[in-house]
Every structure is written in structure tokens, then in C-alpha cells.
Amino acid sequence: MARRELAVETREVTGKKVAALRRAGMLPANVYGRGLASVSIQIRTEEMEKTLKAASANEVIDLKIGGEKDLRPVVIQRIQRHPLNSSYLHAEFYQVSLTETMRAEVPLIVVGTSEAVSMFSGVLMTALESLHVEALPLNLPSRIEVDITPLVELEQSLHVRDLPIPANVTVLTDPDVMVVKISTPRVAEEEEAAAAGEEVAAGAEAGAEAAGGGEAEASSGSHEN
Question: How much is the CA Rg of the chain, to the nearest whole Å?
């Protein structure tokens, strides 16, 4: 199956001047890799949007840079968006070697139906949303399914060690980490309340730290080279 291609151009505009680039419908970006110098590029924002909608997680894309003969195999490393209107601000591509393993996060997708939920009013609790794995770039899965069908009793759970992992993928997450659990309704409510309390406490602590060190935080800006 042919890999998806994305045509881009090298970019001379940097710093605050990239705002004009965005207004012209172009997205500033960079491509870099292990032992490779970072290259400033620009992409039509419309094309980037199409690629993000069509590409799956960890998909290897062939980047076609104007003026270069060879395609560059890359993965989308990071997309920076405006905090208020969610418009695209910057993209980062990581150039991979197809013969060297790399590490990535793979999303976990819950599938199936648990009798403990449908018959005993159990509550599905999700404890883990992704796995940290290592594999060759073209072997990285876009998702790993968590089938909850075997969970037929309350308080049953699935752990990382129970998941169906392709033979050519190495899981780096602790195999004993719980992924999902079917809790009894009352226990689930208590666990959710405890989790909410922890989030409130963490938010209060973060607010106190921000109040004490706001000046230092304000001095750090986004990287747009």
C-alpha cells in the first residue's frame, strides 16, 4: 500500500513574521530527526487539515520538500493550536529511519460489551488511555483494542498484560498496570469523587505555584522557527 504524501516548501520567514504567512493560508512547520538539522518548511493550511483528518495515529507520511529529490518518511510529532480559536499555529514532523525502532504512544480503544455492565449495572472505569511502545516505524499500530467482553462479573479488570499486542511491537508500559475495570455503582461513585478531589487539589496547588512564579512563566514563549 502506497504511503500518503504531503507536499511542502522550504521556508525563509521566521519569528513574528510568520503571522503574515498564516494569514496567507500557509502553516509554518519544521522537520527534524536524529542526527539531522532542523529544516524550516511551510504547508498549505488546507492540505495540513486534510492530512490530519485522513491520517491515523503514528502513520508514516512521505514528505515531499520542493527542490529535494528524495521523499522524507516522517510522523507528525506535534501540532500547535491557538488556545482561544483552535486555529493551527505550527507543525512539527519527525523524520524516521524505516530500519530503526522508535518509541510512541498508541491509543487504547474500548470495544465489545460487558455483561457486568448490561446485566449488573456495573460501571466501566478506564484507568489507561494509551500504551508506550517500541517498534519499527511501519509496524507501529494506530490503535490497540481493549475488548471488555470477557468481563462478566463486577470488580473484574483487564491489565496491560491482557491486551492483544502484535508480535513485532514491544510494550514499554508496565504489564501490571490496570487498563479498565468494572466497578459496582457505589464504589465507582466513590472512586470518581476521590479522583475529582485530587484534580481540585492539584489545580489549587498549580494556581499557588503560578502565583508565586508567574513572572518566570510569562517570559517563556512558543517556538516558531
Answer: 22
User: How many CB atoms sit inside 10 A of residue 56's CB?
Assistant: 11
Domain limit, last residue, from 39, 60, 95: 95
Coil vs helix vs strand at 31: strand
Q: Which domain holds residue 151?
A: 102-188
pTM for this entry = 0.76
> Has residue 207 been placed in a domain?
no
Q: Report strand pairing: 5-10 vs 61-65.
A: parallel
Beta strand ranges found along 3-143 (DSSP E): 5-10, 26-33, 36-44, 61-65, 72-81, 88-95, 102-111, 123-126, 130-135
Return the beta strands (E) in 96-207 as ranges.
Answer: 102-111, 123-126, 130-135, 144-147, 157-159, 170-171, 178-183
Q: Is residue 150 in some structural domain?
A: yes
pLDDT tens readout for residues 97-143: 999 999 999 999 999 999 999 999 999 999 999 999 999 999 999 99
Domains of the chain: total: 2
